[in-house]
Design brief:
This protein is α+β, with helices and mostly antiparallel strands and 407 residues long. It has two domains: 129 residues, Jelly Rolls, CATH 2.60.120.10; 240 residues, no CATH class. It contains 14 helices and 15 strands.
């Protein structure tokens, strides 16, 4: 069932730390497994099913759509999985173990309330189905059971509606762009259709089991031993160069699509000769983020999303050893993040810490100390020990004096 009263954009912001892309037919867990992850669907859908032990036949209980969560019973109770979960299509999921799930619930009372409300919805729906079955036990066989939970549209997801509107107004036939050869051991391709240019192409993603995190910087950049998923985290249309995150690629409104079409020539200049139809290099990843920044500038204002794009662009420049370009991107990131924090009645604690950290990396100890102080005064500060430790360490570094860092 879709999460009620949840800030879906806030969940999307957790994708880099707690998310991964899963190809169609990937089994997430099987009935009887003792795994305990709790999942939230950002994009795609997941089939929950049971297998008859005597016949081996599968019964599909429910297909959970974007915005739904599942796996909470095993996560919080420790009980074995009661069903098998399989990606019904290429999907992007958040997943949490018990510790990180509890931290999330503690840090976000709004999220916790949404989970409680959704579980209440499920209980009510189950009671209605039981009542319906009881009433029909001695009556006509045509009585319909209540629909399974989770059929409401996802909160962010007017994506399908926007995509349908774009298809209705498309100026030309869809063009197919073949996917170039790639290493299927580390990557997988998802077929998507650009809502701006009506081009169908294969967008590559790094397989979750190919990821290997070696270390993590104090501004949350992860250093990978294998392929870097950041190179592929932005989908890019090979024709019109429209670029966006996977869970938001189909999301522009009809008005935004018109703005994006009108600015195609600007993105063509930024994209240059880059070919996004196959395996990417670091330079391709940099260009993809530059295209995403140009694309989101044509869409509804979202300073936190723009801040995140500039921040990740800075990470790629750091990976390339391009210090000046990294610092320039960090300046843009801190400006957008600060706008986002100012627009929020209760700014996210991790966002406040991140702003302080970026000021410190830019050599601005005064502003760094100011935001570290705001972080420490946040009502959720004691609930996130990792942020506590980082904040105290970096606050001490800020007091030691200005020392811009690119590592």
């Amino acid at each position: 069932m879709a999460l009620r009263n949840i800030d879906f954009d806030a969940l999307r912001s957790l994708r880099d730390r707690h998310g991964a892309a899963f190809p169609r037919d990937r089994v997430l867990f099987r009935e009887g497994d003792t795994s305990a992850e709790f999942y939230v669907i950002l994009q795609g859908s997941v089939e929950l099913s049971l297998k008859d032990k005597s016949t081996g036949n599968k019964t599909v209980l429910h297909v959970a759509q974007a915005g739904a969560f599942f796996g909470e019973m095993s996560c919080f109770s420790g009980l074995p999985r009661s069903a098998t979960a399989t990606a019904a299509e290429d999907s992007v999921l958040l997943f949490f173990n018990q510790d990180t799930a509890i931290q999330l619930l503690r840090a976000s009372p709004r999220f916790a309330l949404g989970v409680i409300q959704t579980l209440c919805d499920r209980i009510r729906a189950a009671n209605e189905r039981i009542a319906t079955l009881a009433e029909s036990a001695g009556g006509p066989s045509g009585s319909a059971a209540a629909p399974p939970p989770g059929q409401r549209a996802m909160p962010a997801g007017l994506a399908q509606t926007a995509a349908a509107a774009a298809r209705a107004a498309r100026p030309q036939e869809t063009r197919e762009v073949p996917t170039a050869e790639y290493d299927r051991g580390t990557l997988w391709a998802k077929t998507v259709e650009c809502p701006v240019g009506q081009t169908r192409f294969g967008a590559l993603n790094v397989r979750p089991d190919a990821l290997s995190v070696k270390s993590r910087d104090t501004d949350f950049r992860e250093v990978y031993g294998g392929p870097n998923p950041l190179w592929y985290l932005v989908y890019v249309c090979p024709d019109c160069r429209y670029a966006a995150y996977p869970d938001d690629f189909l999301g522009p409104s009809a008005e935004e699509i018109e703005h994006l079409r009108a600015s195609t020539s600007e993105r063509t200049v930024i994209g240059g000769s880059c070919d996004f139809a196959g395996t990417r290099a670091l330079a391709d990843g940099v260009t993809a983020y530059q295209l995403a920044i140009a694309s989101y500038a044509m869409r509804a204002e979202n300073p936190q999303r723009l801040g995140g794009l500039y921040h990740r662009l800075a990470w790629l420049h750091r990976e390339a050893g391009e210090t000046e370009a990294e610092l320039a991107a960090l300046r843009q990131a801190v400006a957008e993040y600060t706008r986002a924090a100012g627009a929020s009645s209760v700014a996210d604690m991790t966002l406040l810490y991140t702003i302080g950290e970026l000021h410190l990396r830019l050599g601005d100890s005064s502003n760094a100390i100011q935001f570290f102080a705001r972080t420490s005064q946040h009502p959720d500060f004691k609930r996130l020990p990792d942020i506590q430790r980082l904040c105290r360490d970096r606050w001490a570094a800020a007091r030691a004096g200005p020392r811009p860092s690119a590592s």
